[in-house]
């Protein structure tokens, strides 16, 4: 139960208004004081009296509703947070050009941006969401410091399938509570993603197939849950959508050095190791029977005969605790196998868990990825193994194990 806090809940004319009402009820049930202001088209989807009976306050929908009362200023000053949900394409575009010709626009213009959060939850048809006007407006609003949430991918009211669906009410509720009304400091999490590249010479390297997508998605989901996330990613790996703190690595040594620097300079709560780190680095090159050290200033001729001697790398994961300022660092390992034999899979996981520093292993198998059934098995030292989960559910489990206390706020559905 939250201590009472004031939320100014803005709505606009979207088919998702009934979902916003579910969220409104969740906030009220949790002791938030909520006042609603909306555009006139919102009343195509809800009765004013219904909202008024829920909140106990009049719904403000006009600039001069109470003659010369300064509601457009007062409501913003009263609020601890302003939420626009659902946000139509029209209202998003409207805000981005600073129009005060309706009450939502005026409240936005008078709001103390930068001092208090302004959260926007868009809801619209996919084309409207991808329209360049809407895209530009969203970027503009984000640059002004507004917290524009993503949308879900799924079936839309118009029958089409795509991006633009309003996030589920329980997700927005958890997000707002965890990010803005959780008295505890944000959990600081470092995530590695993508493939190392071990240079042979200035134009060639040894790498693997990791795209970094899993790490980027986990980073985004944890960012949306209010964690302070740093994504340490391979230069060519997928970019996250919502995580802005990014550090690039190239090879094994640069990844190792980055982790050492980051973990020793500030206290992290957890590290999630999704990066595919090379087990070997290039030790020596032998072109035409002449031994040379690998060097990016070098270019081996394509006509040369070449042998490459590799050296075994150490397991960075085993050093993380010694690098870390926080000696209670939670280390979450990822293990990819390529076998249908469960015993072999479990042996591979057990080998990782033999390191007592490792808190949890998220296992996946290449056969599942190839058959488009990418599921994760979670193995934790202290709990029974969970059923196979999709990435989102697996991330929720990771989050719970880092954060705990989210049981009543579990997220059912979100797309990152
Ligand atoms: C049934 C129906 C549902 C609509 N749903 C949405 C929606 O989900 N998102 C959106 O951006 N526009 C939607 N629209 C269009 C907006 O209602 C329209 O652009 C309106 O002018 C928005 O006004 P407002 O932003 O001032 O509320 C819908 C229109 C209709 C007729």
What features would you describe in this structure?
Mean pLDDT is 89; it is low at 404-416. This protein has 14 helices and 18 strands. The protein has helices spanning 17-29, 48-55, 71-78, 89-96, 103-110, 126-130, 132-143, 169-180, 213-224, 252-265, 320-323, 342-353, 366-370, 391-403, and strands at 6-11, 33-38, 81-87, 118-122, 147-148, 152-155, 161-165, 188-193, 198-199, 205-206, 228-234, 246-249, 270-273, 280-287, 306-312, 330-337, 358-365, 377-380. By secondary structure, it is α/β, with parallel strands linked by helices. The protein binds flavin mononucleotide. Flavin mononucleotide binds at residues 12-16, 39, 41-42, 88-91, 123-124, 128.
List keywords for this structure.
2 domains; 7-stranded mixed sheet; Rossmann fold; binds flavin mononucleotide; 14 helices; 416 residues; 18 strands; alpha/beta
Short description:
It is built from 14 helices and 18 strands.
| CATH topology (level 3) name of the largest domain | Rossmann fold
Q: How much strand content do the residues show?
A: 15-25%
CATH class division of the largest domain:
Alpha Beta
How many DSSP H or I helices? 14
Number of domains: 2
